[in-house]
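tool_call predict_complex ligand=magnesium ion
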Amino acid sequence: MAMIEIRHVSKWYGEFQVLSDCSTEVNQGDVVVVCGPSGSGKSTLIKCVNGLEPFQQGEVIVDNISVGDPKTRLPALRARIGMVFQNFELFPHMTVLDNLNLAQIKVLGRDLAAAQERSRALLKRVGLEAQAPKHPGQLSGGQQQRVAIARALAMDPIAMLFDEPTSALDPEMINEVLEVMVALANEGMTMMVVTHEMGFARQVADRVIFMDEGRIVEDATRDEFFGSPRSERAQQFLSKILRH
Amino acid sequence: MFSDFDFDVIQRSLPYLFKEGMTFTLTITFTAMSAGIVFGTLLALMRLSPFRPLATVAGAYVNLIRSLPLVLVIFWFYFLVPWIGQWITGAERPVLVGPYLSSFITFTLFEAAFYCEIMRAGIQSIPRNQVAAGYALGLTYGQTMRTVVLPQAFRNMLPILLTQTIVLFQDTSLVYVLSISDFLGAAAKVAQRDGRLVEMYLFVAVVYFIMSYGASYYVKRLQTRLAVPR
Ligand SMILES: Nc1ncnc2c1ncn2[C@@H]1O[C@H](COP(=O)(O)OP(=O)(O)O)[C@@H](O)[C@H]1O
Ligand SMILES: [Mg+2]
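tool_result ok
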């Protein structure tokens, strides 16, 4: 069953077309990795999935709800889709624990005790229970990103979106974040992940999408993609990033 | 040179100067600050709204107020507020407002335009993805502003908001045009009555200086303390 369906989505910034007729889907429990050169529209596409970016043409359906439909209550839909950003975007004026509690209380209506319990369990899961009373600025980048993942999970999402979750990290911190993501994938979470970590893609991706200049150029199973990508652009791209 | 001066007049009038004059000055300063920041923040949100008419109205208001001399605004409001009150309540004649209430309303509305611009800069200084992160969690626009954006914007702008309040504190002395006994007004009355202009105005200047300078010194220290990493 398709959890996320993207059908013929096009989007313009004024004259500039940032997405051109993009179509793909993510089945329940699948992990889809999105890669492609910088500026190819990966962030824009993933932000269309939870309605953070409006689009002019096409349809995005998440769990049978149309994201672009003006009647859709976006906050309610977004509450069910977790999102992790490149720069973590923890709220710097709140403690780690309050970062996790906030939306549980304001959006899901949990009482403080229930929210705290869930928050602490998730912090424990990402190995950061002891950091609960600290502010995000006191944590390393890898720790902040793990908190951000825990914050998204606290909403009990039906799917998770990741936008280059390890790109802002020092190399030695990338693995601690990827480990959390791999564990999540193995538990059957539906995930759409913009990343250039091809090791992660090889390990858990069901499909890999390659984007270039606003188009989905390649949409293949993992084995197809790493075996022999069909488009030349994808081949070039792969050889470039795999050399590192 | 000070031999002819009677500095005793200051001592004699202290209770009046402070209990009446300074009390009014501080009351109007803090009222206009609190209400002005609230109203100014609303104006800032309007100015940043993607809904054009809202942004235009707020922008026009702010630019108008900031282009007029404060004294003029004080006069205008004093004469206009009764008519506006009549228009709002639908009363038969202009609503009696009086100089005190009129001055509170004027300063709040006037300062709101300045606090608006400060809060606007503060809101714009927050990374766009902080807002996106709030939305992504399912928070509404109002919730995202209240819990994510405004607390950070307010904190970042606190030194500038307070500096603006020090200017406000000095500007409140302009209520003398409505014959209100603020700190300056009270001193002026004593000065006229006892013919001790130099002594009283000297004293008033010293008090304004000490309070304003002390406050800005405090703001500077606060600034270094808030500059700790985010
Ligand atoms: N708000 C915006 N206004 C205009 N152009 C934008 C805006 N946001 C992104 N773009 C442009 O859209 C293109 C795709 O951006 P993005 O989706 O962030 O790419 P990626 O995540 O693949 O690096 C880029 O060329 C970028 O400059
Ligand atoms: Mg991007």
